[in-house]
Structures are given as C-alpha cells and as structure tokens.
C-alpha cells in the first residue's frame, strides 16, 4: 500500500484529502505540528508528498529543496491558493512533480497523485532491473557455476576494488581476457577505456611503438606522432596478453614504465606520465622462463602483485552443459537458425574429452555444429571424431633390463596415475576415484599402500579432498 504524506496548515484541507485518499486505498499520514518539520520528513517513510507552499511555520519551497536533497526518489506535489504561473514554473524547475492551484478538483488531484506514484514505481523498477542486469553481467561472458569458477568470481570482485597490477595465468583458451574485462567492468575505471594488446602478435620493433607510441621521423614509416596504448588507455585499463612472449629488451622498457609510471615514445625525449591499471596474462610458467633467462625477474615481481589462474576446462567439466547452452543460443541467433538441443550422450562425450584448447575449442565445436547441421537435435554423429573416439596413445616400446622389478614398476605407475587424477579432479578425492575407475574405498587403500604423503594425511583427518599440488 502506497503512503501519502499531507502537509497543510488548513485542517479542513487535511481532513478532506485524508478521507479522499483513504477511500482510494492509500495510507495517509499528516504532520503533527508539534514536531520539527524537517526531522519529521527525515524519520517518516512515505511514497508521495502533498505540501502547501505557504504555511505559518515553514515554506513549501524550502520543503521541496529539502526533499530533492534528502529523498529525491519521493515525488512532491505543490498546492497553493496564492500561486502564480511564475511560481509554478519555479517549483517545477526546482524538481516538483506537479503544481496544483486551490481550490482544486478532487478528481484531478487523484489523477495527479496516481501519476506521481506510478512514476515512482517505474523508477524503482528501473533501478532494480539495472541492479539485476549489472549483477548478471558483471562478469561479462564468463560462464560457470563450478567451485573453481566461483573462486575466480570471488577473486575478481576483490581485485576489482583495487588498482593493483594483476597477472592472470592459465592455458590458452581458458578466458583470461574475459577475466581481465570483468575486472575492468567492476572497477572504478569502468567508464574509461579497456585496451587489449597481444604481445605475441607483433615483432619487437612494432610492439614497442604500439606500447609507447612514437614521434614523427623516429623510423621509416613514422610519418607523424602516434600515441601508444599506455596513453590511449589513460584513466582506464591496459591488458597485456601473452606478456611472456616479449623480447628481453622490451621487458626492460616495460619494467621501467611500470616502475616510474611514465613512458617515452620511440624516438622521443619527453617523459609522459600515465594513470592506467595494468592487467597481464600468460599461458607460460614465468618462473621457468626466468630460470631459462627468457623473462626478467624484476618484471615478474612488478607484474605479480596479485595473480590467479583461470582453470582448464577439463578441471571444471560440470560447467560444460552451461557453456554449450550459451554457445548454442549465441550461434543459433547469429545464424538465424532454430534453437538446437543435444542428446544426453553428446554432453557425455563433451564432458569426457580432454579439451586441449579449452573453452575456445568448445566454442569452435559448437559454432561448427550450428553452421553445418540442419537437424534440430544434435547427436554424437554430429561431433568431430576426436571427441567421440579419442585417439589412443601409441604403444611404448620398452626393454626388460636384468634388474627389472615388475612390482616396483606397477607401484610407480599407480602413484603417477593417482597424482594425475588428483590434478584433473582439482583436489576432490571422490572425483579422483571416479576418474581412475575405482571406488572411493579402493583409492583410499592405494593411497595408504603407497604411502602418498599429503593424500594420506587427508585420509587420517577424514577429509575428502586432496591438497592442491604446489608448483
């Protein structure tokens, strides 16, 4: 039930309007003149204010100004017996919903009140819809309800509230750029530019120019001054994809820019300050690259303020049906085709496949199916052969040595398979048992038998998860 507050120094007007709006189904409140008007307006909840302009203890325009400042969502209708067109225009410009002259027509006032309350409802609905839309789209195209993806969402929300440099790790096709865009969308820089540059796609000479810009005549083809992405992304976010592929020389220049928060265009002498949030990504093991002399340690520590990993698709197979549904909708709509559905065995094949290309590979498979298949129901026959019948690994050739110990060899192989199942299951013991085709009890027995440290401790503690393997 909507509540209308009536402010008027004429008791007859207050009584009349109270009866009229009660009959219309509204709750009506009035101002007890013993209370301070502005304290009363602050403390009371109401959906519409009807106020006289001239009252002995206060002025209606002051009340309007107070409402616009403190409760802008509540519409205000002004009433007066002494009004002029000039005064009405002033009230409307100040933010009043409407302006009614006394003596007024009761039916007209009921219509004005209903319109004001309807406008308030529409505003509230718009605010709620916008909020729901922002919550739904805050992670952009990132999709998934698995435990691993929920952890990623949680990290993104925390990271977005800072300006710290972030590095996103993960295999190719896991959605590192989508995660970077989500961080930007949730950050205070969301209204500014997000620029992405693939550091592996350009040779060293061009990459430096793309990053830092150049001045006219600095090299052949530099016919004018050009801003780099650091300047173009000013106040926004710069995403450096495949940052491990930079040459060592460019890494030095990038480190200096991040250290000083200034860049120098190629061929230029002026140092240009920048205010940009940096997010980097790589599918490489940066610590290994440092050991190999291919990545500078100081740059690693400059980038690695906050880091997280995008999980491989094979580690979150429970997200595959959700991803498939999204990709089907996307490409059926894009290609103007009827929505397709998949039989349960198709989903089974998709969940069993290793997906070396991760989500990107899955999306390509779905796009191909929508483009080629005319049938509305997708069966296993529509899938690429490598998904339906994965290639068996070639048999290894081996030589039996004189001191060969079959039991020790079997034990070693068993350990390797258990540890690999641990990796694929993301640390879930019951899922690891399922991957190995064992019962939970059998896997526990093998862990005890082969004295697998860490895993054994979990069994002793009664936990059903495996501690993640450290790098």
Verbal overview:
The chain is an alpha/beta fold. It has four domains: 3-131, Rossmann fold (3-Layer(aba) Sandwich); 147-311, 3-Layer(aba) Sandwich (Rossmann fold), CATH 3.40.50.300; 314-388, Helicase, Ruva Protein, domain 3; 406-460, Orthogonal Bundle (Arc Repressor Mutant, subunit A), CATH 1.10.10. Helices cover 48% and strands 14% of the residues. The protein has helices at residues 11-23, 37-43, 60-70, 85-94, 106-137, 147-160, 176-186, 204-212, 229-232, 248-260, 286-291, 297-303, 320-334, 344-352, 358-372, 385-388, 406-425, 429-436, 440-449, 455-460; strands at 3-7, 27-30, 48-52, 54-55, 58-59, 76-80, 98-101, 166-169, 194-198, 213-214, 226-227, 237-241, 262-264, 271-273, 277-282, 306-309, 341-342, 377-378. Helix 6 packs across helix 7 (176-186), helix 13 crosses helix 15 and helix 17 (406-425) packs across helix 18 (429-436).
What is the architecture of the largest domain at the second tier of CATH? 3-Layer(aba) Sandwich
* CATH first level of the largest domain: Alpha Beta
Sheet with the most strands? 5 strands, parallel
Low-pLDDT residue spans:
462-471
What multimeric state do the chains show? single chain
Share of helix, binned: 40-55%
In CATH, the topology of the largest domain is named Rossmann fold
Number of helical segments? Answer: 20
Q: In total, how many beta strands?
A: 18
C-alpha termini separation: 61 Å
What strand order characterises the main sheet? 2-1-3-6-7
The Rg value, from CA coordinates, equals 33 Å
Secondary-structure content class? alpha/beta
The number of domains: 4
